[in-house]
Design a protein that fits this description.
Keywords: Metal-binding, Zinc, Zinc-finger. With 192 residues, the chain is of the alpha+beta class. The protein is built from three helices and twelve strands; from the N terminus they run βββββαββββααβββ. A hairpin with a 4-residue loop joins β7 and β8 (102-104). It starts with 10 loop residues before the first strand and ends in a 6-residue tail after the last strand. The structure holds zinc ion. Zinc ion is lined by residues 21, 23-24, 26, 51, 53-54, 56.
Length: 192
């Protein structure tokens, strides 16, 4: 969450409460919420939970100006896109790329995040590098992914970034002047 530092000047409200921990049951869960009012993204509520007994930690983001469940599609074409596109991913979002070949399922792999696209690609490369013990075809795919993700990181490989978020709390913010290239589809969320 290093990148949030730059946004902190827009914080318009902060609260902190203590609650029961969903993991260990002790009343040592601190929930800290901050509302950021950013001209760039709109209003975001960031919540961090932390249990001092068992170490449980969770973070989530609520996009207060959300228009509802959304599928965001953005074609990343060059280094400008990599450096200057911002990604806000809520914990409920699925982030994937059919052509670069990765999927971050909801809730997994680092929960909510606010990062330039560059930071997301770095993280994917780190995950792939940490994945040991694969053999044959799977290992070949892992090595190919690391190579292709590094090309994408440097702007030498185009790919499509897709975020599906049933809460509508995720955002892709393209570089200035490229906003029109972002495809925004409303998602149908099954009732149940
Ligand atoms: Zn706990």
């Amino acid at each position: 969450m290093e990148s949030l530092e730059g946004l902190s000047s827009y914080a318009e409200g902060v609260y902190e409460v203590t609650d029961k921990c969903p993991v260990c049951g002790n009343r040592t869960l601190t929930i800290r919420g901050v509302v950021y009012n950013t001209p760039y993204f709109g209003r975001l509520l960031l919540e961090v939970m932390n249990c001092s007994t068992c170490g449980f930690r969770y973070m989530d983001i609520t996009y207060l100006d959300s228009k509802g469940p959304v599928k965001l599609t953005y074609r990343v074409t060059d280094r400008v896109d990599v450096e200057r596109t911002w990604v806000i991913r809520s914990a409920e979002a699925k982030v994937y790329s059919p052509d670069l070949g990765f999927t971050l399922a909801p809730g997994s792999a680092g929960e909510a995040m606010i990062t330039p696209l560059e930071g997301l690609i770095y993280r994917l490369i780190q995950y792939a590098e940490a994945m040991r013990g694969l053999e044959g075809e799977a290992e070949a795919r892992r090595l190919a992914f690391i190579r292709e993700a590094n090309e994408a990181l440097n702007g030498f490989r185009e790919f499509t970034l897709i975020i599906e978020d049933p809460t509508g709390n995720s955002i892709i913010k393209p570089p200035p002047g490229r906003e029109g290239r972002l495809k925004e589809d409303r998602l149908e969320v099954p009732q149940g």
